[in-house]
Design a protein that fits this description.
The structure is a single chain. The protein is mostly beta strands and about 180 residues long. It has helices at about 50, 65-70, 90-100, and strands at about 15, 25, 30-35, 45, 75-85, 100-105, 115-120, 125-135, 150-155, 165-175. It has a single domain, classed as Sandwich (Jelly Rolls).
């Protein structure tokens, strides 16, 4: 699709899910990632970008202009992220700590506000949904939070943190 209705050469590949109310979704280039805590390092927070040469999460074929037009023409946008601890860790203990240790950085370069995030837990698996609304002028700026560009793990408050967190980054969807 071509949200800015310009040249078709800058069109974006999307998945349109009509059974989900007509959502338009864009896949991330990399869906499965791992965040690792090095036991010898004395840092309290680890970010995906730090472990990957400063590279942020990218989305297939989306440039700034097309993303801006998708936001303007949408009432809401959302993104699912699933996290799980490594198999060799205390899975129940690590699952209890996930809500305190996950940080999400939005497209705006700011950390995503907790009131925009919901999570559900099942053992050592945590599903996170970031949902923003842009239907009113009051909330229009919230659309700048998505897509998620970086994910951090806070370790200072949790001594039994899993040494590795597996992350599945879902598509960025607009409605």
């Amino acid at each position: 699709m071509d949200p800015n209705q310009g040249c078709p050469c800058d069109a974006v590949r999307v998945f349109c899910n009509f059974t989900a109310g007509g959502t338009t979704c864009i896949d991330p280039r990399q869906t499965r990632i791992k965040i690792r805590r090095e036991p010898d390092v004395k840092k309290s927070e680890f970010w995906f970008t730090e472990q990957n040469g400063g590279n942020k999460f990218e989305y297939a074929g989306v440039d700034v202009v097309q993303l801006r037009f998708l936001r303007l023409h949408s009432r809401t946008s959302f993104q699912h992220i699933s996290l799980s601890c490594a198999a060799n860790q205390s899975r129940a203990a690590a699952a209890e700590s996930f809500s305190e240790i996950i940080r999400l950085m939005g497209d705006s370069g700011k950390e995503i506000d907790s009131h925009l995030i919901t999570e559900s837990r099942k053992g050592c698996e945590v599903d996170v949904v970031v949902r923003v609304r842009g239907s009113t002028e009051l909330h229009r700026g919230d659309m700048e939070f998505l897509p998620v560009r970086d994910l951090g793990v806070e370790t200072s408050s949790v001594s039994h943190l899993a040494s590795e967190v597996a992350v599945v980054l879902g598509p960025l969807c607009f409605l």
